[in-house]
Design brief:
Length: about 200
C-alpha cells in the first residue's frame, strides 16, 4: 500500500492523488486504506516516514563501513545522492510533497530531526577527538547545515540531471571537510569580530 501511495503521490502530487486510485493500484479497497492510515493525510505521512527510514538505513550502513571520519563523510554524502537517484519517487514524496498536508509536514520535520540527531552525534564525536570543549549546540547546528546543503543540491540535480552525483558529492565533501578539519585543529572562529545587529 505504501509503495502504491508513494508512486501515485510522486506522479500526481498530494492534492491530485486519490485514495481510490491508490487503493486500486495496491489491490485493496478504499476502506482498507482508511482503516490503516485514517486519511490521505495520514497515508502521506506514513510514506514520508518510510522513505526517511530507508534513507537513514542506507546512510548508517555507509558510515558504519568507513574506517576514518573523512571516509565516513564521503561515504555518507555519496550514499545520499545515490539514494536520491535510485529512489526518485521516495525523493519526490519525502521532500517535495511534505508540505501538501499538515501530517506530511510534521512527518518530514520528524525525519529531518532524526537525521540531524544522528549526524550531530557523528560530528560531536569527531570534534571531541581534538577539542576538550565545544558549544553544546554546535553539533546540531552543523548537522542541520549538512542536511540543508544536501537537500538543496539534490533538488538542483533533479532540475539539472547533467550535474554528476560524484562531482556534487566531491564538491560538498571539500566544503564540509575543510570546515570540520579546521574545527578539529583550531576550534571555532571567535565571534567577537562578527557584526551584531
Amino acid at each position: 500500500m505504501l509503495e502504491a501511495a508513494e508512486e501515485i503521490f510522486a506522479a500526481r502530487g498530494f492534492a491530485r492523488a486519490s485514495m481510490a486510485e491508490i487503493a486500486a493500484k495496491a489491490g485493496v479497497t478504499k476502506p482498507v486504506l482508511y482503516d490503516h492510515f485514517g486519511s490521505k493525510d495520514g497515508l502521506l505521512a506514513e510514506v514520508i516516514r518510510r522513505a526517511g527510514a530507508d534513507l537513514r538505513a542506507a546512510l548508517e550502513a555507509a558510515v558504519t563501513s568507513a574506517t576514518t571520519p573523512e571516509e565516513a563523510l564521503g561515504h555518507g554524502l555519496r550514499t545520499y545522492f545515490d539514494f536520491i537517484e535510485q529512489h526518485a519517487a521516495s525523493w519526490t514524496v519525502l521532500f517535495n510533497e511534505g508540505g501538501g498536508s499538515p501530517a506530511g509536514t510534521q512527518a518530514l520535520e520528524e525525519v529531518r530531526r532524526e537525521q540531524a540527531a544522528y549526524i550531530a552525534t557523528l560530528i560531536a564525536a569527531e570534534i571531541a577527538e581534538d577539542r576538550r570543549e565545544a558549544a553544546p549546540d554546535a553539533a546540531i547546528v552543523y548537522a542541520q547545515a549538512v542536511i540543508g546543503a544536501c537537500e538543496r543540491l539534490a533538488t538542483l540535480r533533479t532540475a539539472d540531471p547533467s550535474l554528476d552525483a560524484d562531482m556534487v558529492a566531491a564538491r560538498l565533501m571539500e566544503l564540509f571537510w575543510l570546515g570540520f578539519s579546521s574545527l578539529r585543529s583550531a576550534g571555532p572562529p571567535s565571534t567577537a569580530s562578527m557584526p551584531l545587529r
